[in-house]
Write a structure and sequence with these properties.
Length: 601
């Protein structure tokens, strides 16, 4: 912190084995956020006490304190070095830091700001100068995905506000905003109007007025694996094209003016035609674009065959911004699948930046780059997919079966990938509704029709979007496997200038929409066609519709207000229907997409 302005410059999180380095470099204005258990370890406690820093303590489920720990805590509190203590009602009472009636704090903690949380119940704040605890309400949060991290979110939001000299009630409100973001989405974060140039502009000598949150929020509006790149020729373009072919969210985050390399054999408009959407930055600088893509993504995959200047800048950005980077060109081809999966799972990658050599530098390495990017993105998408509920035994394929039927969506991106897998390109290219395969039939149709055909026993199994099952499925439908490909979000879309309350919704998914609004007095109308049209003319306040890139909505001044359901391609069958080859072929297709089939091992 700046001792003059009280501005918070950085909150440093470091591995435990590096904490001694932090202790040695501490200064009087530093505040260490530590767990109470750290003071229970004598060697660590001595190092902590020997620092010049003050402390904020999280109780973190410590069941009891030794007398030595208790005395040390009271001694540090007496010298006003413990500024904050965070804990649940049960923890604080059990450790005798708050009375059993929660009416007062331990007298030895008179100078400490104690924050007592109690799930959905009001938060109580104990502070010197208050005769009784300050009681602050907690608001209900809609659209909760899970509760993991809610407590940590509250602590971080509260501390950040208090360190900026924000009054307690407002700090509590801002902490609740962090909690709401965490409860609704694992990738959400509160609006911070920080210019990119303020974050790393000095390091690259390239100013930018682009805001941090606007970019971060935009690229993270996706489910499954999202892919971004600078949109240049070569590796950038290959990544966007590949992601699009597998139904993965993909965005070109480009320099101002959509600046890109002038390769002789690449049409100037190619990136616009292939990429689903483009975000233009406020400056034409390639370097700023490189750093921005590294910063707003969760990690970067790099393909550098020649040690180019741009790739070296990517490495520098990843190192200084502390973003994980995986160099793909050096990996043996057979190691890509497992290396990418482990990398995605280890670092929690949801949005990956793909960077590397431009078209004219790739040369003879282009085909290798296409293969590596294809395998990497498929492996990454599969790593984020839910595990199959059931896997059909491979022995089914050895049985001489006929007269089976598998449904496949006529949606071009899905049908063409299935044709690539099943080697029935001619049938798909000719627009046939039925293709013959291994003694059975593959039926191409609309997803909603495929769900109904499975429900009625006409099809043995079908590959469909999970949104269709949410809307048209019943108890008779069983999900066999989930793929992690051809993803989108089903959510509430409104005009940018919309002001609550929400009174009317249009949707092609009226059943889903009705379940989402619950008992609220919101009119839900079933429509056919483009939902955005109804909203743009003001006929309805919002629409429950699919969102992958947001291109249509954003081109008409609309936004994804609230994600509700994540959807992807799944394999379904009629419940209790005997297993047959249709299920096996459908599972094999998902295995092929995920690179789980033997040909990739």
């Amino acid at each position: 912190m700046d001792s003059i302005t009280n501005d918070t410059h950085a909150i440093i999180v470091q591995p435990r084995h590096q904490r001694t380095q932090v202790f040695k470099g501490s200064e009087p204005d530093d505040l260490f956020l530590v767990m109470l258990a750290e003071f229970d370890d004598p060697s660590v406690a001595e190092q902590l006490e020997a620092t010049a820093a003050d402390f904020a303590i999280i109780l973190a489920d410590l069941p009891k304190m030794t007398s030595h720990t208790r005395n040390r805590i009271f001694r540090l509190a007496g010298t006003e070095r413990i500024k904050y203590i965070f804990g649940t009602a049960a923890e604080l009472i059990n450790l005798d830091l708050v009375s059993t009636t929660e009416s007062r704090a331990n007298p030895n903690l008179r100078s400490v700001e104690i924050i007592l949380t109690d799930g959905p119940n009001p938060v109580k704040i104990y502070k010197s100068g208050l005769d009784k605890p300050l009681i602050l309400p907690v608001q209900n949060v809609s659209g909760v995905q899970n509760y993991l991290g809610a407590g940590d979110a509250y602590v971080s939001g509260y501390l950040l506000s208090r360190l900026s000299l924000t009054p307690i009630p407002r700090a509590h409100d801002e902490a609740l905003q962090e909690v709401a973001c965490t409860l609704r989405s694992s990738t959400a974060r509160r609006h911070l109007d920080v210019a990119i140039g303020d974050l790393f502009g000095a390091a690259i000598e390239r100013p930018s007025e682009q805001t941090n949150f606007a970019l971060f929020d935009r690229v993270h509006k996706n489910c499954g694996l999202g892919v971004i790149s600078c949109g240049n020729t070569g590796v950038d373009q290959i990544a966007l094209d590949t992601a699009s072919s597998y139904g993965l969210s993909n965005l070109a985050v480009m320099p101002a003016g959509r600046r890109r390399d002038k390769a002789a054999d690449v049409a100037p408009s190619q990136v616009i035609e292939i990429s689903s959407n483009i975000i233009e930055l406020s400056t034409p600088s390639y370097r700023n674009c490189t750093w921005t893509n590294v910063y707003i993504s969760d990690g970067t995959i790099l393909l550098d065959y020649v040690g180019s200047e741009g790739s070296n800048e990517t490495r520098k950005a990843a190192k200084q911004l502390q973003r994980p980077l995986l160099s793909l060109a050096e990996l043996p081809l057979g190691d890509i699948r497992e290396s990418v999966r482990q990398w995605v799972q280890r670092y929690g990658i949801r949005v990956v930046n793909v960077a590397g050599n431009r078209e004219r530098i790739l040369g003879l390495n282009k085909e290798d780059a296409i293969t590596r990017i294809d395998w990497a993105l498929r492996s990454g998408a599969a790593a984020l997919a839910d595990s199959p509920t059931e896997r059909v035994a491979t022995t089914v394929s050895e049985q001489p079966q006929s007269n089976w039927r598998l449904g496949v969506p006529r949606l071009a991106e899905v049908s063409h990938k299935f044709a690539e897998f099943a080697r029935c390109h001619d049938s798909v290219a000719d627009g046939q509704l039925v293709a013959h395969l291994d003694g059975g039939e593959v039926c191409f149709g609309r997803s909603l029709d495929l769900v109904r055909m499975v429900d009625r026993g006409i099809l043995d199994a079908a590959l469909v979007g999970s949104d269709m099952v949410h809307e048209y499925g019943g108890d008779n439908i069983e999900v066999i496997a989930q793929s992690g490909f051809f993803n989108c979000i089903l959510g509430l879309i409104t005009r940018n200038d919309f002001i609550s309350p929400l009174r009317s919704i249009a949707s092609q998914y009226p059943r889903v929409a009705q379940s989402l609004v619950g008992g609220a007095s919101i009119q839900v109308s079933s429509i056919v066609g483009t939902a955005e049209t109804w909203v743009s003319i003001g006929a309805y306040d919002g629409a429950i519709d699919t969102w992958r890139t947001g291109r249509t909505a954003e081109n008409h001044d609309m936004t994804l207000r609230e994600p509700t359901i994540s959807t992807s391609l799944i394999l379904i069958t009629q419940r209790n229907r005997p297993k047959n080859k249709a299920r096996y072929v459908g599972q094999r297709f998902i295995d092929w997409l995920s690179m789980d089939s033997s040909e990739f091992r």
